[in-house]
Amino acid sequence: MATRIRPSSKRCTVIGGSGFLGRHLVERLVDRGYTVNVFDIRQAYELPGVTFYQGDLCDKLALVMALKEVSIVFHCASPAPGSDDGALFQRVNIDGTRTVIQACHEAGVQKLILTSSASVVFEGTDIKNGKEDLPYAKKPIDYYTETKIKQEKLVLEACSKEKGFLTVAIRPHGIFGPRDPQLVPILVDTARRGKMKFIIGDGSNLVDFTYVENVVHGHILAAEHLKADSPLCGQAYHITNDEPVRFWDFMSQILVGLGYSAPRYHLPYALVYGIALLLWFISLILRPLIQFKPTFSPMRVALAGTHHYYSCARAKQDMGYRPLVPLQEAVVRTVESYPHLRNGE
Ligand SMILES: NC(=O)C1=CN([C@@H]2O[C@H](COP(=O)(O)OP(=O)(O)OC[C@H]3O[C@@H](n4cnc5c(N)ncnc54)[C@H](OP(=O)(O)O)[C@@H]3O)[C@@H](O)[C@H]2O)C=CC1
Ligand SMILES: CC(C)=CCC[C@@H](C)[C@H]1CC[C@H]2C3=C(CC[C@]12C)[C@@]1(C)CCC(=O)C[C@@H]1CC3
């Protein structure tokens, strides 16, 4: 009978390792002595000790090659949340995640850590100190959220102590930090186009923004605490900075830090949400003729005008999670990392 070589517990593959979170994760894993494979649709950098496999995660054969002799897989690939390509989300986040699970089985992987999102419970209305037992959103606000829900369910249901395949889902919220392609660049672009003058609502809504190093820390703790006798098996964990902040104060701090004016004038939430819905509907109807994408999508307006912050008590209890970088320090590091986005550059 063929005996399978037991992979080293410090060999891992990061699917989506060329992306924002994935690359930070890869760098930290290498620092901690892991041997790392990256599987991604693109190769964005080179790093000693890291082997790149370029391919689409829907391609099982290509994926299995990158999982050979690996004991841990981190799955943090996804289409960009702002996309409205429903077919792409279905293919990558759902069919692709099924492929990831099958490839893990074929390659004898023992642990799968999924990057999910706290937004799987967000329906566009207030969430204050939400715990992991909140129900999944019944009416997900966009394709991204809809497919992140199905993806998380697939991964958690695949957890099997009998098969020796353990899974866990990390739910970060509002990740930011150096090299983020979304939050700061979109914010600056909106400011440069003169559209960051208004505060949606009264500006008192609290939100979690989580520094990328803390999200990475949560992933590594999860991988190292995931054992057959641990409470992590088949569970989801919020990972936040544990310092909810007023959405508009956070945005203003980044804008002012980069030399732009903070938004000052208030607009009623219901009015802006209504306009965003109308524009989204018009863009849908006109799509065959002209393509335009409103800056303030209904999702962005909901994120900007409601409370949505989450408890990370479960991660503290089960894996000893504590944020490593406090929010203020994280904002300073982030602002310093974008010299090219400063006003006037
Ligand atoms: N950013 C945030 O605020 C939050 C993110 N998340 C989750 O964190 C994860 C990482 O997000 P983030 O780092 O911001 O995203 P990025 O877009 O920066 O990284 C995702 C990476 O996956 C790659 N990828 C996409 N599709 C495929 C595919 N079919 N096969 C192989 N690779 C693919 C992307 O390539 P390409 O760029 O070419 O598409 C990219 O390199 C995602 O799962 C996201 O849902 C959760 C909560 C908040
Ligand atoms: C109002 C405006 C134009 C703000 C600019 C910043 C936004 C681009 C970000 C503010 C909150 C962010 C956020 C996400 C993407 C970027 C923002 C909308 C996510 C949707 C990314 C993926 C997730 O899983 C949830 C995030 C929530 C917060």
TrEMBL record:
UniProt keyword annotation of Zinc present:
no
* The protein's Enzyme Commission number: 1.1.1.170
Q: In what way does this protein cross or attach to the membrane?
A: Single-pass membrane protein
Q: Which residues form the 3-beta hydroxysteroid dehydrogenase/isomerase domain?
A: 14-267
Taking the first listed entry, what is the main subcellular location of this protein, grouped into a coarse class?
endoplasmic reticulum
* Class in the EC hierarchy, top level: oxidoreductase
Pathway listed for it is: Steroid biosynthesis; zymosterol biosynthesis; zymosterol from lanosterol: step 4/6
Record's subcellular location: Endoplasmic reticulum membrane; Lipid droplet
Q: What domain of life is recorded for the organism?
A: Eukaryota
Q: Which GO terms describe its biological process?
A: cholesterol biosynthetic process; cholesterol metabolic process; response to yeast
Q: Give GO cellular component annotations, separated by semicolons.
A: endoplasmic reticulum; endoplasmic reticulum membrane; lipid droplet
TM region positions: 270-290
Which reaction is this enzyme known to catalyze? 4alpha-carboxy-4beta-methyl-5alpha-cholest-8-en-3beta-ol + NAD(+) = 4alpha-methyl-5alpha-cholest-8-en-3-one + CO2 + NADH; 4alpha-carboxyzymosterol + NADP(+) = zymosterone + CO2 + NADPH; 4alpha-carboxy-4beta-methyl-5alpha-cholest-8-en-3beta-ol + NADP(+) = 4alpha-methyl-5alpha-cholest-8-en-3-one + CO2 + NADPH; a 3beta-hydroxysteroid-4alpha-carboxylate + NADP(+) = a 3-oxosteroid + CO2 + NADPH
List keywords of the entry alphabetically.
Acetylation, Cholesterol biosynthesis, Cholesterol metabolism, Endoplasmic reticulum, Lipid biosynthesis, Lipid droplet, Lipid metabolism, Membrane, NAD, Oxidoreductase, Steroid biosynthesis, Steroid metabolism, Sterol biosynthesis, Sterol metabolism, Transmembrane, Transmembrane helix
Gene Ontology molecular-function annotations: 3-beta-hydroxysteroid dehydrogenase [NAD(P)+]/C4-decarboxylase activity; oxidoreductase activity, acting on the CH-OH group of donors, NAD or NADP as acceptor
Family designation: Belongs to the 3-beta-HSD family.
Q: Could you give the subunit structure recorded for this chain?
A: Homodimer.
Q: Which PANTHER family match?
A: BIFUNCTIONAL POLYMYXIN RESISTANCE PROTEIN ARNA (PTHR43245), SHORT CHAIN DEHYDROGENASE_REDUCTASE FAMILY 42E, MEMBER 2 (PTHR43245:SF51)
| Annotated protein name in UniProt | Sterol-4-alpha-carboxylate 3-dehydrogenase, decarboxylating
Q: What is the lineage of its organism?
A: Eukaryota, Metazoa, Chordata, Craniata, Vertebrata
Gene name tied to this protein: nsdhl
